[in-house]
Amino acid sequence: MTEVVDTPKDVPAIGRREQQKEAKRLALVDAALAVFSRVGFAAAKIDDVAEEAGVSKGTVYLYFDSKEQLFEGMVKAKMIPLLSNMAEIAGDPQDSASDRLRAHMRFFYSKILNSDRRQIMRLIMAEGPNFPHLAEFYHKNVLSRGQALIGAIIQQGVDAGEFRNLEGHGLTQNIAAGALVAAIWKLVFDPFQPIDLEAYFETHIDLVLNGLKA
Amino acid sequence: MTEVVDTPKDVPAIGRREQQKEAKRLALVDAALAVFSRVGFAAAKIDDVAEEAGVSKGTVYLYFDSKEQLFEGMVKAKMIPLLSNMAEIAGDPQDSASDRLRAHMRFFYSKILNSDRRQIMRLIMAEGPNFPHLAEFYHKNVLSRGQALIGAIIQQGVDAGEFRNLEGHGLTQNIAAGALVAAIWKLVFDPFQPIDLEAYFETHIDLVLNGLKA
DNA sequence: AAATTATTACTGACTGGTCAGTCATTATTT
DNA sequence: AAATAATGACTGACCAGTCAGTAATAATTT
Prior knowledge:
Chain A is mainly α. Chain A has nine helices and no strands.
């Protein structure tokens, strides 16, 4: 149950409502992520989202027009912080391609695989075919951007004679792939075979760097 | 719409019913896979499964006790052929570890990623948290077996001085991972960025073999 | 600054439609 | 004609979405 900010009554009146609204929107988004993660889109009840946000069912519909829009809105809201982060890791082009690649991959592992974000990834895998908008949005804003960054670094490495040229054969997909699986594995199979994300990451980067070595 | 075998009336009476029953069970399983793949577990309607199997709703309940059991039964039924195949590819221990690894990985790509089977994988990712039995079953019978085979081959390679020793750091998970992602990518993101499974496989095995090289 | 009015936010009982699962009836097989 | 299989109308629970009514806040008047 996410509590709405309890704005004191003696705060400058102006903006009280806006603050509350914003806080409530956040609470709804958090609650939606929790509920959808727990049971999937179809089985999720708006009543449960409302209760978890500390709000009545009708209120949910003041913020989102439908269950679909709640879902899509939640995914987008949860992804925006990540997207803004992505710019800030252009990385130092002075470094070797290996170092930059390692740094970028670490970024993805830590930002995408940690916390809530991996639930979103799983939801997109799970519900993607029923929400083509969302799958496209995710691909466009996360996967293809990530691949572009990785592709650029690899190109740098190839140009510098540091890497072999494997481009054009699904290489960036292959690299992105490792992160996707780690997220899903953690959520689905961890009870049966725990995945040590740090070790998995090291192995992944090791294989990639050695595999690419010229 | 999967048609039930139309056993002619003048066939030796003995076994007519059993044949029909078996055929109907198969039709139901096929229909269930199709419908669950299309819309997920919660949104799937038993009526749709029945219609797609060319049968009435009541009949579904003559074969499966509940929607849950239909789902679980379908997954298991669809997996059995794969499991029996797995024995037959022990591979020739005379070959180099590299060759054997390549052969095994190709097997997984072709058997798991082709046809219906990848839909099952996606369903397990999607519904796994709601069906822990199934996730466990899948892990036990597919993933861990696959990893065991790969692990054995890598051990051979390490013993022969062909591979570096990276064991114990999520290596087999990492290798299995590539196949999982390929399957999911194909189903979720293919419309936006088609994945060439053959090229992807070659890149994957290339990275792994070069990455492992002693 | 108290009282009054207007506006905006929220509530939860209700509705209409959906669907898993049942079972009395009908059809088919032996 | 007995036994077995299949049907599909029916039921009851469930839930997305609505809306008349209430509460909280802001604006205006006295």
